[in-house]
């Protein structure tokens, strides 16, 4: 789609894009007049930047109809032929990559570089006499900083997958692009952090107060700082911090502290409101999607009109939810867990994340037991004994002749993650209960998250190792299905501990109640090389200067 064609169709909102947005830059850049047409007009320039936002990732069925969660121990995808299964059986390779992140992120980066090059010093003289010229230029002054943030975000997406990648900050010719060499992880990380620092100094904390034009979804100061703390957390983690350098953990904690001290964000009182809610007090940056029902079609339980089942939570994940009264894991004999009523008295986030047997969905009792309306042996019924609830909008109607759609908002950064990032970094740098000069301990930060969920505080007196284990579990529960677990197990280098996937078989007792039996569903493959993605072989064919990641 050429730029003029794209502009003709317009945009529904700042972050509501058409399926054709990835074609946004498919035009002949040798034509200077065409670029001039775009960047000499404020509206077209704004649309161009908006198109760059479309490269921000989501995990709404991102891999062949599946969430990336199905390639972690969070979930199993019910469709055996989905390409996401290749993550699990070890058949993914450089020749057959499972997503096009390399290509997509570099397309986004090239768009940013072009935008920055073409808009430098632009004043839109032909629009100088417009009544809204001052407001227009007020917006435009922020655009380079937004673009630079997006480029930094795209580079983070690259280094967390591929580690060493080419760092490109100018528009290259096709021939130049075929000869670039990789920069080190550390160098690209330094670039990301520096960009975050510089744009954070210029961006407002809230565009609603900054501009007379009300817009949501734009990059803010908080988003830049959130990217900084996440990037530093990854750099400090075992995968990239082989020497265990505590300085990296300290820097990650300090970055999180900037957001915590700002007071810009607060935890939602209701955990269910943290996703699909672009007005959330907790949301730092989200990607708004146009009204659709595709995610619901993929994830409504079998037995509900239009439901096809898709990403199904595992018993592994369900077992991670502690008991609400004791705050203890269900494996602890003192926890109060009752295997006859396995979902009773659990962390409230369980029922807010997972559709359980005998729970209510769309006004109906869900029957996941064998022979039930929503259970085996129905075709495509869940194999794990659970259906996905988080991010699935219950009010979507898939009944023929009465179908509706809803807007979705994918969370890219939220305040609870910042608190958990801070807690992890503080524990590794100083231990659970030493605030150093930060003002808040790791223990205090994680307890804020637990208090919102209605869970007891973590106890005082834990060792660093004990706190680490409990924090990792808390992160797993709080951030479930937000595209964190897949990456966390890699940066922690514990992928080989997540290969046994468990389900629950549920039988209905003839005299009432149910019998629950945990069973091994799948033994997955995880090798050390899988902590990183392979660089697509097609890219290496085009550019022999690229070095493949070890083992691939």
TrEMBL record:
A Pfam entry, by short name: SusD_RagB
InterPro entries: SusD-like_N, SusD_RagB_dom, TPR-like_helical_dom_sf
Domain SusD-like N-terminal: 46-230
Keyword terms of this UniProt record: Cell outer membrane, Membrane, Signal
Location of the protein in the cell: Cell outer membrane
Record-level GO cellular component terms: cell outer membrane
Entry keyword annotation includes rRNA-binding: no
Residue ranges of every copy of the RagB/SusD domain listed in the record: 305-552
Family affiliation: Belongs to the SusD family.
The name this protein goes by in its record: RagB/SusD family nutrient uptake outer membrane protein
